[in-house]
Amino acid sequence: MSATDRSGYTFRRARRDGNGDCDGNGSGNCDGSGSGDCDVRANGDVAAIAGVDDSFTTDSIFRVSISESGFALTEVSLASPLTKQFPAGPDDEDDEDDAEGGADSHRHATFVAADPDGAVVGFVSVAYARWNRRLSVCDLAIAPAHRGRGVGTGLMACADEFARDCGARHVWLEVTNVNAPAIHAYRRMGFAFCGLDASLYEGTASAGEYALYMSKPVAGSSVGDDR
């Protein structure tokens, strides 16, 4: 089973192979119900997911001002548009099991969005940590031609359902300060700034940028749950 929105996009759990879904029961529900965990690198949708263009172009960025008492963000216009292409290669998913609590305390899932022709045009990968009941958005990408059509909202709805199923208290993500389009989209989805890291990108192609952290509470989450 999968969910289709009014624009014709279908949202489902990423497939492990041509027949089953990552929850192992073939249901494909956005809530991720089932016993198995999903690693995007091990499922049958991996090629389609890797082919999603995650670059972006923006006319503005968020300037970061840091003082002893905190930091401030100011959106500023650019003299010319900035286009950013993220480098290809493995991300930091291998570090997930090194966090406090170990592999048994984590659940992973990936959800994809398909257009009416069945082509994968976006995805979101998430990981739940039991020790602080946080669902982290590890990666979210939407093909440029399909942005602004509710695909991101649909994918985040899948993440929200998975968060409730896990018993998460909040959803958390990281975004660079130069990705103003994504920041505005996350704000519309209910995310708010909760922190900053001025050194996360040092030594990378994104050196000089700031990592902004955003989070939002999980509606309907059971405070007493601990899955």
Structure description:
The chain has helices at residues 46-50, 151-166, 180-188, and strands at residues 3-4, 10-13, 56-67, 70-84, 106-114, 120-129, 134-142, 170-176, 192-197, 211-217. The protein has one domain (3-79, 102-217): Gcn5-related N-acetyltransferase (GNAT) (Aminopeptidase, 3-Layer(aba) Sandwich), CATH 3.40.630.30. The longest helix has 16 residues, at 151-166. The strands form two sheets. Strands 1-2-5-6-7-8-10-9 form an eight-stranded mixed beta sheet, with helices on one face. Helix 2 links the parallel strand 7 and strand 8 (170-176). 33% of the residues are buried. The protein has three helices and ten strands. It is globular. The chain has 227 residues and is mainly β.
Number of strands: 10
Computed structural class: mainly beta
Average pLDDT for all residues: 83
Overall body shape: globular
Largest sheet composition = 8 strands, mixed
By CATH's scheme, which homologous superfamily applies? Answer: Gcn5-related N-acetyltransferase (GNAT)
**SSE order, one letter for each helix or strand:** EEHEEEEEHEHEE
Number of domains: 1
Radius of gyration: 17 Å
GO molecular function: acyltransferase activity
Organism: Prauserella salsuginis
Pfam families: Acetyltransf_1 (PF00583)
Domain N-acetyltransferase: 64-219
